């Protein structure tokens, strides 16, 4: 299901197969793609269950990461390449340009990394260390390390949770300051409030998510959600 809405978010109405739509400078934000593949939805339901073990939660996030990697790369441009099969020369196709960058937002974004790297083994990795201040819900940066040539690469920013979007907005801002301009955001769950804020701040960046939940509670948690993704993934609390 693909949703493309005016900035800021007003309605969620357009449907189609998962694929990205760029901001075309027409006052519309880039698309929000809900990856409603049955495997993704099944695994997400298992993850939401509060009885799921730390080990199970981590494994499922990893598996969904792999499936989301497949969807978020669906429209990458290809270029012709001449190769020799054992029988003859032929023109194949390969992904154009430099290797992708995967940019997990620490900690929970790391949960997507192994699954994505299993499909994109030569991707570069940028780490964006942010935590959400529990009182203000503002994002606080504590670490940043990225390849120097972000301007030449497609960057997939990874974080399971898009709640207030403070973390995502700050991460994208930081990556843009370092030259990135071809960005995609991948999450597991998004709140409508977070999507609106994200699109107001970064209307050029499309979003892929497995679900859009109902709302945020008074503590900025996604409802019904799955709780604190980092704590559930690492067994902290
Ligand atoms: C969580 C989550 C996101 C952020 C989302 O991280 O992984 O990064 O909250 O919330 P927001 O959209 O309101 O910013 P948290 O700050 O709990 O850190 P952690 O991943 O280290 O647990
Ligand atoms: N961060 C989480 O881990 N979960 C939420 O519901 C919101 C922010």
From TrEMBL:
One GO process term, biological-process aspect: uracil salvage
Top-level lineage group: Bacteria
Binding positions (uracil): 222, 227-229
Reactions accelerated catalytically: UMP + diphosphate = 5-phospho-alpha-D-ribose 1-diphosphate + uracil
Pathway connected to this protein: Pyrimidine metabolism; UMP biosynthesis via salvage pathway; UMP from uracil: step 1/1
Cofactors that this protein relies on: Mg(2+)
Cofactor: record remark: Binds 1 Mg(2+) ion per subunit. The magnesium is bound as Mg-PRPP.
Molecular-function GO terms, alphabetical: GTP binding; magnesium ion binding; uracil phosphoribosyltransferase activity
Pfam families the record matches: UPRTase
Keyword annotations from UniProtKB, A to Z: Allosteric enzyme, Glycosyltransferase, GTP-binding, Magnesium, Nucleotide-binding, Transferase
Regulation: Allosterically activated by GTP.
Cellular component terms (Gene Ontology): cytoplasm
Location of the Phosphoribosyltransferase domain: 34-236
InterPro entries noted in UniProt: PRTase-like (IPR029057), PRTase_dom (IPR000836), Upp_B (IPR034332), UPRT (IPR005765), UPRTase/APRTase (IPR050054)
Ligand binding (5-phospho-alpha-D-ribose 1-diphosphate): 107, 132, 159-167, 228
EC code(s) of this entry: 2.4.2.9
NCBIfam families: PRK00129.1 (NF001097), upp (TIGR01091)
Similarity section: Belongs to the UPRTase family.
Cited function: Catalyzes the conversion of uracil and 5-phospho-alpha-D-ribose 1-diphosphate (PRPP) to UMP and diphosphate.
Protein name per its UniProtKB record: Uracil phosphoribosyltransferase
Classification of source organism: Bacteria, Pseudomonadati, Pseudomonadota, Alphaproteobacteria, Hyphomicrobiales
């Amino acid at each position: 299901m693909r949703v493309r809405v005016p900035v800021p978010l007003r309605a969620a109405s357009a449907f189609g197969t998962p694929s990205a739509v760029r901001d075309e400078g027409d006052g519309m934000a880039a698309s929000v793609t809900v990856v409603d593949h049955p495997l993704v939805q099944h695994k997400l339901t298992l993850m939401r269950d509060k009885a799921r073990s730390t080990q199970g939660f981590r494994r499922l996030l990893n598996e969904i990461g792999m499936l989301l990697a497949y969807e978020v790369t669906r429209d990458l441009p290809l270029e012709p390449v001449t190769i020799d099969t054992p029988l003859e020369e032929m023109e194949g196709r390969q992904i154009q340009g430099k290797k992708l960058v995967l940019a997990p937002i620490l900690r929970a974004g790391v949960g997507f990394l192994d699954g994505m790297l299993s499909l994109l083994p030569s991707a570069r990795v940028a780490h964006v260390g942010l935590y959400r201040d529990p009182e203000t819900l503002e994002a606080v940066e504590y670490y940043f390390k990225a390849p120097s040539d972000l301007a030449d690469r497609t960057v997939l920013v990874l974080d399971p949770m898009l709640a207030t979007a403070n973390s995502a907005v700050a991460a994208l801002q930081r990556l843009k300051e370092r030259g990135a301009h071809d960005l995609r955001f991948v999450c597991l769950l998004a709140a409508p409030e977070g999507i609106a804020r994200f699109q107001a701040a970064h209307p050029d960046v499309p979003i892929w998510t497995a679900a859009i939940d109902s709302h945020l509670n008074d503590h900025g948690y996604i409802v019904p959600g799955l709780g604190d993704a980092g704590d559930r993934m690492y067994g902290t609390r």
